[in-house]
């Protein structure tokens, strides 16, 4: 839901590498798919449908922006977006509209992966390949390709960053401001975080609160943490949007005696890292650039091409993006990718 180098690489890799050659391979001789020489040169016209949740969160809004911007880079894409909705039934109806329009490919970021599985299956059965973006359907049969973030890896990298920062501190204490506990992604982020910190015997997670990916919930739950734990050394916040509320609570409490690591990669947090004058020292990316890469994959599917740098004639069945840690050392590289 709301949630590196890997994200940028995936985006560039796919964009620059979708083959537009009209030559077809016959299975003999040199790999005609050097699929590779691909560029943005106009190829076969492809109509791409796009369906996602309502953009009521900074990361989701960035997903929509990334998709729209990527489409404009190609002359051979006709874009058919439908209105976003957080209601599974409404989104399912929108996907059915795209199926009836007989678009070539559909990119779907489901409001609820389980609830929208049937919609994905229906498109696939109609002969329309589906690119499943981030939130996973219940069965791989509901899509041709999945691309998304690594929630477990996000937690691991946050834990390793904090672990290295505190490895020489005796009896270090850490608190966690998680996302919605009803979501599998939150469970995966927390598990990765805990698994990573098991390697640091001097560090203990002393408190955890689950917020709701909103500024209001972030402020309330952070206030609870600050009242419950009078002294700690580091905070990991799963989501930069709810982190704005957490920052408000921290300022109100007059606290600056710990380091904070965010999650997702908002421009606001990256600006704070760049300035280096608050408790925020890093953020772990959950890159919305995945939506741009999903467009690249959909275009490749619609044109029947593979991607460069790989010997196969077909695009992969799944692509997991890397959750890079952004801190003061590499902030200049990643600052342009921050979302509002």
UniProtKB/TrEMBL annotation:
KW Signal (keyword) present: yes
Family: Belongs to the bacterial solute-binding protein 2 family.
GO molecular function: carbohydrate binding
Domain called Periplasmic binding protein: residue spans: 48-305
Protein name: Substrate-binding domain-containing protein
GO cellular component: cell envelope
Gene3D superfamilies, per the entry: 3.40.50.2300
Domain of life: Bacteria
Compartmental location: Cell envelope
Keywords in alphabetical order: Signal
Entry-linked InterPro entries: Peripla_BP_I, SBP_2_dom
Organism (species): Streptomyces coryli
């Amino acid at each position: 839901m709301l949630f590196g180098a890997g994200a940028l690489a995936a985006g560039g890799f796919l964009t620059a590498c979708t083959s537009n050659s009209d030559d077809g391979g016959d299975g003999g001789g040199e790999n005609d798919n050097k699929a590779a020489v691909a560029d943005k040169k106009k190829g076969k016209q492809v109509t791409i449908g796009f369906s996602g949740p309502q953009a009521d969160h900074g990361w989701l809004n960035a997903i929509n922006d990334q998709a729209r911007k990527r489409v404009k880079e190609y002359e051979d894409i006709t874009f058919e977006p439908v209105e976003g909705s957080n209601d599974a039934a409404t989104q399912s109806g929108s996907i059915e509209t795209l199926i009836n329009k007989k678009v070539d490919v559909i990119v779907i970021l489901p409001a609820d992966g389980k609830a929208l599985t049937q919609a994905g299956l229906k498109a696939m059965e109609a002969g329309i390949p589906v690119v499943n973006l981030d939130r996973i359907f219940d069965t791989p049969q509901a899509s041709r390709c999945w691309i998304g973030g690594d929630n477990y890896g996000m937690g691991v990298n946050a834990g390793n960053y904090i672990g290295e920062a505190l490895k020489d501190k005796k009896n270090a204490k850490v608190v966690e401001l998680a996302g919605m506990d009803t979501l599998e992604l939150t469970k995966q982020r927390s598990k990765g975080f805990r698994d990573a910190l098991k390697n640091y015997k001097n560090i203990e997670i002393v408190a955890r609160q689950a917020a709701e990916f909103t500024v209001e919930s972030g402020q309330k739950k952070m206030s609870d943490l600050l009242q419950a734990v009078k002294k700690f050394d580091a905070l990991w916040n799963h989501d930069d949007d709810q982190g704005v509320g957490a920052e408000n609570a921290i300022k109100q409490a007059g606290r600056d005696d710990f380091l904070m690591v965010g999650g997702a990669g908002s421009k606001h947090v990256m600006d704070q890292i760049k300035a280096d004058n608050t408790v925020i020292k890093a953020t772990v990316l959950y890159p919305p650039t995945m939506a741009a890469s999903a467009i690249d994959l959909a275009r490749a599917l619609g044109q029947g091409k593979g991607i460069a740098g790989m010997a196969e004639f077909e695009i992969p069945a799944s692509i997991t993006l890397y959750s890079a840690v952004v801190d003061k050392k590499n902030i200049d590289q990643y600052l342009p990718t921050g979302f509002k």
